[in-house]
Amino acid sequence: GERCQIVTNRSDLFVTISEIINMKFSIIIPVYNAELYIERCLFSVCKAITSSKSECEVICVDDCSKDNSLRVLQSFAIPELIVHHLDAHAGVGAARNKALEIAKGDWILFVDADDYVEDNYIVAIEKAIAEHPDVQIISFGSNSPYGAHLYASLWAKVYRRDILPKRGFARYAHGEDRLYLAEAISNASKIIMIDE
């Protein structure tokens, strides 16, 4: 069968991935009141995973949503999907920190719940890594509305796990991603931009 078959209206509560060694990519999606968007996001991520040859995991951390976001997440039967629910609303930084604790990938990709990715997302990253094996951050360039400026956005980049700030995301109401991004960039010795 397909690696990323989606089945909705399932009765089981959580779809988890078994222990995987040498996980290549961890895709982190913080979720808060995103029931209107998360399905599109997950469908796009699933298509990107299906197009790739790498081992991937998708980690969705529900930040105690007040809508049906958690129920939507639980309806997906994707072997690569890990769903974690925070008991209290703690903010997007805390949700990302929890996902980073769970993540097993060598590469970390941040995707927001109201975003979607192109079908060739993972394939483009694989190609960039193959061409630049010592790269530590891959930034999406001029074809991305936010990627052209290196400090513009957390989610328009892919990070080698070992250069990410060890302290995680700070607990600010706004801007925690900018501080984290600046520290990650300062830790990197090689950053490339791709126009995929």
Question: What would you note in describing this structure?
Answer:
With 196 residues, this protein is α/β, with parallel strands linked by helices. The chain contains five helices and seven strands; from the N terminus they run E-H-E-H-E-H-E-H-E-E-H-E. Strands 3-2-1-4-6-5-7 form a seven-stranded mixed β-sheet, sandwiched between helices. Helix 2 links the parallel strand 2 (56-62) and strand 3 (81-85). It is globular and about 40 Å long.
Provide a short characterization of the protein structure.
The protein has 196 residues and is α/β, with parallel strands linked by helices. It is 28% helix and 18% strand. The chain contains five helices and seven strands; from the N terminus they run E-H-E-H-E-H-E-H-E-E-H-E.
Structural class call reads: alpha/beta
- Helix-strand pattern: EHEHEHEHEEHE
Tally the helices.
5
Number of strands: 7
Q: Runs with pLDDT <50, length 5+?
A: 1-22
Q: What is the CA-CA span between the terminal residues?
A: 29 Å
Bin the helical content.
25-40%
Main β-sheet, spatial strand arrangement: 3-2-1-4-6-5-7
Please state the overall shape, judged from the principal axes of the Cα atoms: globular
Sheet bearing the most strands, described?
7 strands, mixed
Radius of gyration: 16 Å
Strand and helix map with partners:
Layout: E1 25-31, H1 38-51, E2 56-62, H2 69-74, E3 81-85, H3 92-102, E4 107-110, H4 121-131, E5 137-140, E6 157-160, H5 176-187, E7 191-194
Parallel strand pairs: 1-2, 1-4, 2-3, 5-7
Antiparallel strand pairs: 4-6, 5-6
